[in-house]
């Protein structure tokens, strides 16, 4: 291998996760697979076709450039929905290519309709409501104006949905806020329908909401982190396993990010390891260097915090994570040697590295670490031929 690390994507694990998610949401709720942030670091080009062979036919992205990547790689002409940024200049492209997009302000709405007139195709829009996140979304007074405008342009849009996004459904601390958001959304949805406009699907839930707030599932869920086999937070995980006796993690990591031991050596008691004085050997130790550092996506904040797997054992990162390498305490593995597989994220034997592996660091680290994995790490799909095309599509299917 030329690269210092590589990423394997396990189709069997993805099939397991999708089955689990479909079981949770039921057969009447559609699944949109969220693949923003280069499919949470898994790689849009590898992930999208793999998901499509497992019946996924709707993808959500943040921006037009990601939508372009999905449409370029899609084998089944899946629906693509942009939840965030589309420059006015790219609206024509979106309309022409039947890319759906959120509308949360009047200027985008007017430009979208203008483009729809120009190219003679309907703009496929989702009206986003402000319900309490205070990020994007129409407040009621602007929604009233949007509806007036839409009613004058009925031939130029398809109202694909109405939606909102929650302000932290992964934490019980936000329970009241999220509950209020659900109420507010339903009220605005009802009002919208009372005007005669009929959104095709109402959708509000991300992974955490879909697990912890069944009422947020509505007609479609937008699932990111769960499908990749990670939990939005420990709380969400506990919310989920408290109902099952086995207490086993129902998800499997799709990604295995792995490298190799580059070198091993002994360190005497009292010696500092790596730059500076952040780690001192309190006994005679054996350490291994791994050629992955922050320039390769291994967060510097994992200095003296990270865990990796070598020879099936969970081992600690010691000292500062450098630009190009990190150091692992392998004292527990006297046989560790150059060339041993090092798992940075994912499973090895019975052990697994995921969010909870990094101790009490922020839950958001999971998202951040994944999405910052550089694009130039080679990615390969470990396909499971017998799975391909056996899992039914959930909900509506594009004819
Ligand atoms: C990222 C995102 C999601 C998916 O979030 P997960 O926690 O990864 O499931 C859903 N909806 C919106 C608007 C998002 O930005």
UniProtKB/TrEMBL annotation:
Enzyme class: isomerase
InterPro entries named in the record: Ala_racemase (IPR000821), Ala_racemase/Decarboxylase_C (IPR009006), Ala_racemase_C (IPR011079), Ala_racemase_N (IPR001608), Ala_racemase_pyridoxalP-BS (IPR020622), PLP-binding_barrel (IPR029066)
Keyword Isomerase (UniProt): yes
N6-(pyridoxal phosphate)lysine found at: 36
Stored SMART domains: Ala_racemase_C
Catalytic activity field: L-alanine = D-alanine
SUPFAM superfamilies, A to Z: Alanine racemase C-terminal domain-like (SSF50621), PLP-binding barrel (SSF51419)
Gene3D superfamilies xrefs: Alanine racemase, Lyase, Ornithine Decarboxylase, Chain A, domain 1
The Alanine racemase C-terminal domain, residue ranges: 254-382
Cofactor annotation: pyridoxal 5'-phosphate
Single GO MF annotation: alanine racemase activity
Active site location: 36 (proton acceptor), 275 (proton acceptor)
Residues binding substrate: 135, 323
Keywords: Isomerase, Pyridoxal phosphate
Function: Catalyzes the interconversion of L-alanine and D-alanine. May also act on other amino acids.
PANTHER family linked to this entry: ALANINE RACEMASE, ALANINE RACEMASE, CATABOLIC-RELATED
Record-stated family: Belongs to the alanine racemase family.
Protein name per its UniProtKB record: Alanine racemase
